[in-house]
Amino acid sequence: MDDVVKRLATHLRWNKKSKDVVGGIFRACPPAAEKDIIATEQRLNFNLPETLRKIYLRVANGGFGPGYGVMGVEGGFMDDLGHTVADLFEVYRQPDPEDPTWEWPERFLPICHWGCVVYSAIDCSRNPAPVYFVDVGVKEPNEPMESIIKFHKPSIEVWLNDWLDGKDLWHEVWG
Q1: What whole-number distance in Å separates Cα of residue 119 and Cα of residue 136?
Q2: Rg of the chain, C-alpha, whole Å
Q3: Cis ω before 110 (30° cut-off from 0)
Q4: Residue 170 included in any domain
Q5: Cβ atoms 80, 67 nearer than 8 A
Q6: What's the pTM value of the predicted model, to 2 decimals?
Q7: CATH number, domain with residue 34
Q8: Among the listed residues 45, 46, 47, 64, the one whose alpha carbon sits nearest the alpha carbon of residue 55
């Protein structure tokens, strides 16, 4: 766990900016304050995985990583609609009156935006927290939630290490 936190810190020390999937530039945010982590965990009603918590507190409050970037907690990096991880979690946990089968998993935290309402999400009910791709835009009414969720990596540590190693995480799932 601490290895990937240290690797990310070193990477961001030398590479303060990241490129998104279309070549736009985004920058890592300063680390979060403990009070913002606590407020986020209270909103979520569960704790963040230890690695993600350490990254937010010690390295950056989002604004790094693959796709359009890892989103942060309050005061940190947001997706294109202005959502932090807690904001988007709360939006997705709401029922959809047009789709009775819409039921966002209880501790499924969207952390990285890929565009077109595709996110990487981590299952915070498990340790280590596995990473999934979720393509919200293709959810058809009355289809099961599993139709939009694809397993990607066994943990956030593996996911981040693979990104730091230069692996094309998008291509691994979507070809």
Answers
A1: 8
A2: 15
A3: no
A4: no
A5: no
A6: 0.95
A7: 3.40.1580.10
A8: 64
